[in-house]
Amino acid sequence: MTWELPSVLLLHQLAKQEGAWTILPLLPHFAVTYSRNSSWIFFCEEETRIQIPNLLETIRRYDPSKVNITSIDMLYLYLTGMVLGKALHDEESTIIHHYAFSENPTVFKYPDFAAGWALSIPLVNKLTKRLKSESLKSDFTIDLKHEIALYIWDKGGGPPLTPVPEFCTDDVDFYCATTFHSFLPLCGKPVKKEDIFVAVKTCKKFHGDRIPIVKQTWESQASLIEYYSDYTENSIPTVDLGIPNTDRGHCGKTFAILERFLNRSRDKTAWLVIVDDDTLISISRLQHLLSCYDSGEPVFLGERYGYGLGTGGYSYITGGGGMVFSREAIRRLLASKCRCYSNDAPDDMVLGMCFSGLGIPVTHSPLFHQARPVDYPKDYLSHQVPISFHKHWNIDPVKVYFTWLAPNEEAKARQETQKGFREEL
């Protein structure tokens, strides 16, 4: 970013490598291309709204080459590298952050990408040198904003996040340089319920406690739904696919569901959603989101994770938040020879590997969630219209559903959608 009008880059156009969305692999490119004529690299989301003059003026305060900084600490911070952003922190230790800072989760701050965040060029150069000298230590990318902040902080060897109040996710304050418009995507008429088939993965031991929760909450929203188990129970009813239950992975069961969906000659349903029996989901919000996609194209949609992206790995849709497939995506997948290496292989990762090999990218939506609401910062969820959450552990799942996802919230979601459209126009 310069003090002229900044150049605008779209990350997915910068590199064809699978891990470009994780940003760190792109830092060497930024260092070579922009370090001579820019002071900062500013990142934002598609829905982030920016007041360019306010943004430039805000960042100018942290740049010693542009203003007279008398603070030795501020000068030292800039020269050694700074990361600016709206600070998030965990309320309690959480699995999605590997229970980091378990003694005091609030102590570690990481940026809310929706508000935008910035790296100083000295920090970009410093991180580039580090990336060249040592490989990334984690194989998995789960929550990018937290993991990037951890990498930059480097166990105290690097800079912590500098909170910037002008980086905002709402527009209630006149001084905000950035805001974030949270509305449910709608690109036409919502997809009909009859065009979405929902497959619930379960097993006999969970018929008595998890399935009643589904029936008590979101089942009535689904026009087409089946429960796939290792045991036939007519009162639910469940379908026994002939695949033995496994303690983890469930790849054999998932591929059996995909085969069953595609081979129903009488049923040309456009979309398949596969969820766990402890997934909480809003089908009506999903109908809105799917209006933005063409089921005639290969679409694989949900919350994106990554595996081995620093060394040629792949992205995948994590299963707990729900995996959404277009019929065409399933057709191409099953036409290939890519299959599970065992029934208990991790289904979501195998699917990611298969689609990567087919050249079909996964499509990320932050509205799907692999974990519970309590596993995310309140500020982060406050600017979302969520589609799903996952896990019943230590929560009241019925209360969570009716608080976050129930149809009585749909009027509010529609208002936000319409508001977003009016502002876009």
UniProtKB/TrEMBL annotation:
Keyword Nucleotide-binding in record: no
Cellular compartments annotated: Endomembrane system; Membrane
Domain Fringe-like glycosyltransferase: 190-400
Membrane topology value: Single-pass membrane protein; Single-pass type II membrane protein
Keywords: Glycosyltransferase, Membrane, Signal-anchor, Transferase, Transmembrane, Transmembrane helix
Superkingdom of the source species: Eukaryota
InterPro entries: Fringe-like_glycosylTrfase, Nucleotide-diphossugar_trans
Similarity comment: Belongs to the glycosyltransferase 31 family.
Name by which UniProt lists this protein: Beta 3-glucosyltransferase
Organism: Rhinopithecus bieti
